[in-house]
UniProtKB/TrEMBL annotation:
It comes from the Eukaryota. One of its GO terms (cellular component) is membrane. This is Contactin-associated protein-like 4. Residues 1-112 form the F5/8 type C domain. It comes from Dryobates pubescens (Downy woodpecker).
């Protein structure tokens, strides 16, 4: 249509902000210049936020991504995003524009409403999931969740057995640590402790994803897009663990496994254990 956005001053400090009204999954964007003008943007950055205050820059291949913009006022330049953004607010930040004109943009955003299950933790609570189905002789566990926090320390997940075996996922100084402890060092002398650390600055109040896949004694630990694969020797496939998972903390003080022993303070989204939606289950029961 006619018109478009053109700020009074064309410099590097301008941006166009969009409030989508609710959290949305954005899959593509398109831009034009100002209608019937010599005003168009030749490159720009894309930023996104849930709150409108805490912003993150769109990245591709680990680098801040500068989008190539328009070469005239009316041709549409369309980009399908390499990975979808989940956000309520978007900011388009012009980097360069037509030297014979001004900053001018028309924008279209493509996507759909993002539905999710979210639960908040206040640093004093935890969510316990008890399941009565005994695992098969082939132990297979898949746990996935997303988290967001401003705190640099806290327990995300804990599972413990009668003989001291335990698995703990803990945020320590902004990094995620997966600790697997085989309690009986006489039975498992070769690897009584397995401690894998991934990520950094994970206390930035943005969503981060975690995936733990455990098949027999093969473990895949993924934080955001970084995966650590490891093969645990010995009797790891027969860990003596209770049929209880604790999210956000350790329910009984003094239990083993945590370095900081601080409960998680922040939000979890879409917690799944072997396909079971834990937050939905908690809400319905």
């Amino acid at each position: 249509g006619a018109g478009g956005w053109s700020p009074l001053v064309s410099n590097k400090y301008q941006w166009l902000q969009i409030d989508l009204g609710e959290r949305t999954e954005i899959t593509a964007i398109a831009t034009q210049g100002g209608y019937g003008s010599s005003d168009w943007v030749t490159s720009y950055l894309l930023m996104f936020s849930d709150s409108g205050q805490n912003w993150k820059q769109y990245r591709q291949e680990e680098n801040i991504w500068a989008f190539s913009g328009n070469t005239n006022a009316d041709s549409v330049v369309y980009y399908k995003l390499q990975h979808a953004i989940k956000a309520r607010f978007l900011r388009f930040v012009p980097l360069d524009w037509n030297p014979n004109g001004r900053i001018g943009m028309r924008i279209e955003v493509y996507g759909c409403t993002y539905r999710s299950e979210v639960v908040g933790f206040d640093g004093k609570s935890c969510l316990i999931y008890t399941f009565n189905q005994k695992p098969m002789s082939e132990l297979k566990d898949v746990i996935s969740l997303e988290f967001k926090t401003m705190q640099s320390d806290g327990i995300l997940l804990h599972r413990e057995g009668q003989n001291g075996d335990h698995i703990t996922l803990e945020l320590i100084k902004g990094k995620l640590s997966l600790l697997i402890n085989l309690g009986d060092t006489k039975t498992h002398p070769s690897n009584a402790h397995i401690n894998i650390t991934l990520g950094s600055l994970l206390d930035d109040q943005h969503w981060h994803s975690v995936l733990i896949e455990h098949f027999n004694n093969q473990v895949n630990f993924t934080v955001d897009k970084h995966t650590h694969h490891f093969h645990a020797k010995g009797e790891f496939n027969s860990l003596d663990l209770d049929y209880e998972l604790s999210f956000g903390g350790i329910p009984v003080p003094g239990k083993s496994g945590a370095v900081s022993r601080r409960n998680f303070h922040g939000c979890f989204e879409n917690i799944y254990y072997n396909g079971v939606n834990i937050i939905d289950l908690a809400r319905r029961h």
